[in-house]
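ENTRY TYPE: paired fold submission
RECORD: A
CONTENT: sequence, then structure tokens
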Amino acid sequence: MRNLRRFIIQKNIKRKVDMQYRYIGRTGLRVTPICLGTMGFGSWSDEAEAFRIMDKSVDFGINFFDTAELYPVPPKESYAGETETIIGKWLKDKQRDKLIIASKVAGAANGWFVPPIRHGMTAIDKFHIKRAVEGSLKRLQTDYIDLYQMHWPDSVVPIEESLIAFDELVKEGKVRYIGTSNDTAYGLTKANETSKRLGIARFESIQNNFSLNNPRFLDELAAVCKKEQISLLPYSPIAGGVLSGKYNSASLPKNARYSDYFISNNVRLNSQAQRFVNEKSLASTAKYLEIAKKLDISPVTLAVAYSKQFEFVASTIIGARDAKQLDESFAALDITLSAEIMNEIKSVQQEIMYPMG
């Protein structure tokens, strides 16, 4: 690891004791810099493995879990809600007030996103928001959700109706704070200004795709977050596994997310796979693999460290199919990338612009 100190500052070796917590937006939610994503619980990870993943995360000091009513993925009506059910079984004998639980109301169908149909045609209207939160609370076996998020913007229902319904949940004590996800700078700004005008609860966070291979958040949304004190909760920091380098080989890896998608007959799933795994994304990943090798760290660790590096990021959402996969992501807790490495990364992003489109 020659000259490693030139490139990385490593601290916080002792877990739990030295964990550097961050606050979400202007809330009292004090979260770890890494959040456990659970979207594979019930599909890629069975209940027993999901329990091991959650146990290991808590043992490591992670206090923030993210889920959604439509999980697990790939979304199917037949098992929508299974992830929350698994978390609820695990959560029932834990100290609830020591954990921050985030969930999401499904929202309107949009692109590859296929919400569950158990409530009929879904929408971010008052009826569905109220009905959805009751289902999530029951499955999670809890009487409140710390952060309740709009999973996908609704282009039909007025944002006023959605925000008023969310605000009522906050006043009822079923939800502590609210957030949005997969939104635009326009959508986040309009929602924020609407909350100000009505004097009601606002979105304190936005959960969007953000990674070495997808830095689009830096174009406009980052400015909104910094100016308005709204936190980004980035998901897919390793670009669905692409930044691990496992797709930079001659054949598709086994038991991998986009390998499964590519061999699926579902056109929408295949189109999403092509967004993540393509000529440009593999070319940029190859360059990040070289940077990780120079630093003598895992490319997964590099990707997660990059994601949590920014001041507007409260907590980076990582996932795992098994408990062992957590190690490389959790290693990023001890890493701050130097200005030199961040500039090297920026050069790659300027050379190969928007590899995920």
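RECORD: B
CONTENT: sequence, then structure tokens
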Amino acid sequence: MNQEQRFGFLSGMGAYFIWGFLPLYLTLLRHVSAVDVLSHRVVWSIPTALILITIGSRWNELFRMLQSRNALWLILSSAVIGTNWLIYIWAVGQGRIMEASLGYFINPLVNVAIASIFLSERLRRLQWVAIGFAVIAVLIETFALGRLPWVALVLAGSFSVYGLIRRKLVVDSRVGFSIEVLVLLPIALIWMLIAAQNGRSFYGDGLGDVLLLMLAGPVTAVPLLLFALAAKRLRFSTIGIMQYLGPSLQFLVALGLGETLTPLRGLTFVLIWIGVMIFSFDAFRNDRAQRRQARIDAAQLEPVSG
């Protein structure tokens, strides 16, 4: 592993550790309305995003994107990611972290299913097997809970749609993130104004809550930046395996916070982990095959001397 790859690996680990332990931060704000927390997350993401734009000298790209038709796609992506954030914050506040972690476990499998439908990508046999395990796991989770695990499904579906939109756009992650929070800003400010007019506090109970709510901006933006740094330096298969660190840590946090793991729910996660291992093995094998073929093609194009 060279220096660039090592930096990418550490950046990726940092991103997924922050995402993995995010429920601990949100638990400290459990007494604050989920919509209030989301509003602060948007508001305090603005200065964070603008600092990142300044550091990366991306102002020209930001203005060009705001004037292009692609800005309409970012308006749509902002609505999708805003919904994702709100459901996740609400789920943590309701003590449903385990169900939320299930959503991020099945998210990569939903990604490939969506790619097969909207991008006409043919699924490999092992990908179908992995998706099959995920479907069975969701059915067992439905039986275990006595209801559809809609939190997991909405989180997985919304993040997959968000990824699909951003995949179609060629835009720097900092620029895209800045525009998304700028789009959400008026809604957040209107909500805060309504709360103030109704005499309701939207900043928690005292200075401690204010500081925690202000921290929502960096907590949102920093892992996204770290992930972008990792994605540029690591192979797709490495990123694919690392992405399960976040929901795994969330699952452990849920146990640590006292959520119950019944035998049926345990079976759900066993099946998910089996599906994840099959999916990761297939991705790793496919990545190796593509790199091997690329070396063969490059060798065939080399001029013959003598």
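NOTES ON RECORD B: The first helix runs from residue 3 to 20. Residues 79 and 261 are 33 Å apart (CA to CA).
STATUS: closed
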